[in-house]
Amino acid sequence: MTTVNGQNVDELFQTDSFKKSLKSAEHVIQYVNKQYISINDSDYTVYANHLKAVLSTLVPLMKKADTLFNNLYQKEHFAGSYADKLKIGKPTEYDMNLIIKLPVSPDNLEFEDAAPSFIKIKVNRVAFEKASTDLNFYGRGWVDDEGYLLQTKFRDWMESVLTKALNPLELDESPEGNYGNTRCLKVRKDNAGEQVYKIGHKKSGPAMTLKVVTPDNCALDVDLVPAFQFGHPKWPTSVIPLPETSANKSWVVIPKPKKLKDGVKLEVNDTREWRMSFLDQEREIIKESGTVKPTIKLLKKLRDTNSLKQLSSYAIKTVVMLEMEKNQPDFWKNRSTFIFLFMLNRLIGHIKSGHIPFFWDKRDDLLKMGKTQAENVGGCLTRLLKDMVKNVESNPCIIAEKLCKYAQK
């Protein structure tokens, strides 16, 4: 329980006097949002055009390098803060799912419960072997002896596809070459002729991270994650029911290794388990919801300003979505300053409890910190909250000071 001047913060937030004390600070926080957090349209356009140029050239190279990828590749699917319109700062980091079509129809698949937020996919071996023969990939080891899809084999295959596509390209031998394997990707643009993008890559969890330097020296990090996509009526039984507002939206599984807390060991069959992702449904939940998106951005800004990197953006977004379950839509029409402080208090509560539940499966824990780390992060945020709540009426700029003390526009 957090207290200010002996009063419970939760109780303080319910008083009209406290809400009125935030009136002057509201103008300040709106200014901070506009000047330090929101991304202007021109930046969005410039970086998005660079990303499009790279992918529109790289994906055909991957298709050419691997016949199976050419047969099974479907489309790109944006993930992460950029797609959610929750990005703060320059839009230089992107998460992109590469949707791969399974070689068998959904009728030949069975979903089985696994660890929280994970699922097992079992295929009809007869149908899979026929598809394997038709597409010439039976020997790749995607499926084990019991018919389960293996995320490790799938991830290794995708990594090999990218490597085969990039290796024939000219090596960038300049001193600033990234990862020691930077290649020169030549992109043809109608209005600018041929331009060279320098691309390094490395493996990072389920993703293959591209480190891109554009012709005008913009730096981009692009995480490419292979994924399978499913839709209605397929829906996992281990998560909450499919929301009616997103019944026509798809969900994906990705070959993501488990991120465990200290002292927890992987089980033998973890290679069968695929991480479920419900990004499209989450976008439906948070869209057009008053102060929700600005609040998530402010919390992320506070985290970054205070170097609390252990706290993931997804965990922050999840805490806000969990609170949306409890409050009516009108609640999110309160002043931005009030909602920000209210949600910061809720975030602190989750951290101090040692658990941030996955929105779709509350058994899972998104707070991947040890006890000492969580105490440090929670303590830092508590001190910030108490200082802001205590002084916001006399100093309306205090929230801006906490959000931007190290910021440079």
Question: Which labels suit this protein?
Answer:
409 residues; alpha+beta; two-stranded antiparallel sheet; 12 strands; globular
Molecular structure report:
The protein is α+β, with helices and mostly antiparallel strands and 409 residues long. It has helices at residues 9-13, 16-21, 23-37, 41-65, 67-72, 80-84, 125-135, 151-166, 279-286, 292-305, 313-326, 336-353, 371-391, 398-404, and strands at residues 3-4, 7-8, 73-79, 93-100, 109-113, 118-123, 183-189, 193-204, 207-213, 219-230, 251-254, 273-277. The mean pLDDT is 89. Residues 82-287 form the Mab-21-like nucleotidyltransferase domain. Residues 292-371 form the Mab-21-like HhH/H2TH-like domain. Pfam families: Mab-21, Mab-21_C. GO terms for molecular function: ATP binding; GTP binding; metal ion binding; nucleotidyltransferase activity.
